[in-house]
Amino acid sequence: MKNNIKHLRSKYSLTQDELAEKLNVSRQTIISLEKGRYNPSITLAFKLSHVFNCQIEDIFIYEGE
């Protein structure tokens, strides 16, 4: 699934390590999310929306099936 995590992370001046720490996940998880190789759990999606102060739909781009 495509997403805007890298853009939002840059906008908030966060490193991958800092974002991982805020979300209580590994840096590797952040890398996989940014590259679209990993779809997050709904819990992680809500945590991301909280960190970036936006809607989940503003982070993830649904492309259909």
From TrEMBL:
Pfam families attached to this UniProt entry: HTH_3
Keyword Mitochondrion: no
Entry annotated with the keyword DNA-binding: yes
InterPro entries the UniProt entry points to: Cro/C1-type_HTH, Lambda_DNA-bd_dom_sf
Keywords, comma-separated and alphabetical: DNA-binding
All copies of domain HTH cro/C1-type, residue ranges: 5-59
Name this protein carries in UniProt: Helix-turn-helix transcriptional regulator
The species this protein was found in: Alkalihalobacterium chitinilyticum
